[in-house]
Amino acid sequence: MKKVLFLALAAASFTFASCDTKTENATENAAENVEESGEMKADAMEEAADSTRDAAENSADAMEDAADATPSTTTPAATTTH
To answer: What is the annotated signal peptide range for this record (predicted)?
Structure first.
């Protein structure tokens, strides 16, 4: 009988020990909010970087297209035959 009572008390104490406190829950929520905020900032930075890279590529493409459309003003090198 004592063993059964002891085991029941031990199980009950483990049950209560595993419960989260309000302070622990608040701390976990705050940590999750910080993590989520950081992820949102990182996503915004990635989008800005993508936009900057796309703009640079578009500018480079436009410059290359303009260069291709402009006729060459240099004379070709003379070829010699032996």
So the answer is: 1-17
